[in-house]
Amino acid sequence: MARGVEGKMRLGLGVMLSAVLAAGLAGFCQGGVTSSFVRKAEKTADMPIDSDVFAVPPGYNAPQQVHITQGNHEGSAMIISWVTEDEPGSSDVLYGTHKDKLNNSATGKHTRYSFFNYTSGYIHHCTLRRLKHDTTYYYAVGIDHTVRTFWFTTPPKVGLDVPYTFGLIGDLGQSYDSNITLSHYESNPKAQAVLFVGDLSYADNYPNHDNARWDTWGRFVERSAAYQPWIWTAGNHEIDFAPEIGEIQPFKPFRHRYHVPYKASGSTAPFWYSIKHGSAYIIVLASYSAYGMKLRRLLFQRNIATDDELQLNLLSFTGKYTPQYKWLEEELPKVDRSETPWLIVLMHSPWYNSYNYHYMEGETMRVMYEPWLVQHKVDAVFAGHVHAYERSHRISNIAYNIVNGKCQPVEDESAPVYITIGDGGNLEGLATNMTEPQPSYSAFREASFGHAIFEIKNRTHAYYAWHRNQDGYSRVADSMWFHNRCWRSPNENQC
Ligand SMILES: [Fe+2]
């Protein structure tokens, strides 16, 4: 009898213990949703070089690879970039608000570079200034030879309740899947500008970083990037550091081809900078920059540092006393949320990532900068690098001070939502392997290619939606309403 009671008690304790453990696991170990959507496994391959999406436009010295990006801090300038192959031709742009009356002109400059056995075409950059906000402009490039005309709409004037929709694309590449992502994005009629989180062409996956693949990529994305600004973030595939073929100047192709208005925000390099765009303040950070290129080249040339040490520095040296650190420290207090209520940060390497790819690569930068992002109530951080999709809860991990043992991410209402959107579809394929169980900070994850939009409605609300490539654009695979971190109601700014 006594044995029976003891047995029941043991059973009871066991059930209780299991329940407590299960509750604990649910509370601390298990996260949100790992999507059950199973993507058909297919090989991700680059489109052949003679694909129609890479076609060279007809005509002598025809401008190609046309793309635009914001040209100053406020959004009243636009940088127009293109390449001519036969001769420099003119770097002038004719533009105006009527298609048949391009009665304004601006003069740009051209540059070119060589990379191992490749020499680029003539790369033109021309900034159109003093543009009216929220206005459609037509512009012509290729003056004197083959002229091509495009158009864009400038962002609205910076303001509190200005609606605006951004597209989000990362790690695009030039595979068949990349083409589906871009087409899918284009079929989404809302987005007005692309926030691109790095890794453009993947030319460095070819022998000698075949820079002809930078050209094909430029022609591929022209169908969108010539008509709406793409805001550039540099990824690891932009580094193009190849000492084995004598190429030791990091970011050479990217720097020549993709200009950004970094000086307008007081930055000293094009890899970290900020812009105001409608009701958003966008801060672009550099996961792979630390100190000046000249110093790095000097170290290498004088044999003070080996290739490996340089690579290591390139990847890990994001610390204090660097130009980026100093810039960000001064930049964040400048953001006036009563002017631009939405504060968005872009970077390539994610800080919160529960896939078994690039695990913790963003950790050095997170340790340095996360407290600032929480302090300044950043609304969202978008990153790429991991070729899949993931969205976090609002969490932070900033309490740790070496001796207190507080090293877990915790819920934090002042913290941003972290979104990994490196699912553009490049030739390296999908990241499918995830850490298990799903960590508590991870709200939703799925290994599919796609794009997202961030639709700002007013100072308090923005609608975010992720679209996987397999569905029609109108179908949303993951979404959330963003409530602004500062404006909790139209009359209450908590920043
Ligand atoms: Fe990457």
Account of the 3D structure:
With 495 residues, the chain is of the alpha+beta class. 20% of the residues lie in helices and 26% in strands. The protein contains eight helices and 28 strands. It has an eight-stranded mixed β-sheet with strand order 1-23-19-22-18-17-16-15, with no helix packed on it. Strands 14-13-12-24-25-26 form a six-stranded mixed β-sheet, covered by helices on one side. Bound molecules: fe (ii) ion. Fe (ii) ion is lined by residues 171, 199, 235-237, 348, 385.
Describe the protein's topology.
Blueprint: H1 2-29, E1 33-34, E2 64-70, E3 78-84, E4 92-96, E5 104-107, E6 109-111, E7 114-115, E8 118-119, E9 122-128, E10 136-141, E11 148-153, E12 164-169, H2 176-187, E13 193-196, H3 212-225, E14 230-232, H4 252-257, E15 273-277, E16 280-284, H5 293-301, H6 307-316, H7 323-331, E17 342-346, H8 363-375, E18 380-383, E19 389-392, E20 395-396, E21 410-411, E22 417-421, E23 442-446, E24 450-456, E25 461-468, E26 478-483, E27 487-489, E28 492-493
Parallel strand pairs: 1-23, 12-13, 13-14, 16-17, 17-18, 18-22
Antiparallel strand pairs: 2-3, 3-9, 4-5, 4-10, 6-9, 7-8, 10-11, 12-24, 15-16, 19-22, 19-23, 20-21, 24-25, 25-26, 27-28
Bound molecules: fe (ii) ion.
